[in-house]
Fold this sequence. Notes:
With 150 residues, the chain is mainly beta. 13% of the residues lie in helices and 53% in strands. Strands 3-4-5-10 form a four-stranded antiparallel beta sheet, with no helix packed on it.
Amino acid sequence: MMFLDDESPTTGGREIWGFPKKYGIPRLSVIHETLTGTLHYDEERVALGTMVYKATPMDNAKTVEGMKKLNVNLKFIPDVDGSPKIAQLVGYHLVDIDLKFAFTGAARLHLVPHANCRLADLPVRKILYGQHLCADLTLPYGRVLHDYLA
């Protein structure tokens, strides 16, 4: 699920690519030597992620190659009666990738239970590492890989 504080991409991205989106307030900042990300929903903090800031540079060529691989979303949109209207696997490849930087390092995540923002229900068992990257890129239209209702 993607949480955004801007209405137009929140509304448009679900129908085209199948990104499940909700309104939320994400923030990312550097506090001393720590990259800190928070997500607020209904004025409550529901997620806190921290990572060592600029710990270990990643190989830019390998990172871009990884970003170019096939990405897949489950696009599920219910009909007015709650039954499935659209149930598709949508695939897309990021293009025009201009990687500015990419780092990896130790990371931690804290998820807070909330009735309408169910991030804490994710079964996070172990955090191996974090990645922080910045890139300009294009998200082109995808293609339907499989239509479950066809």
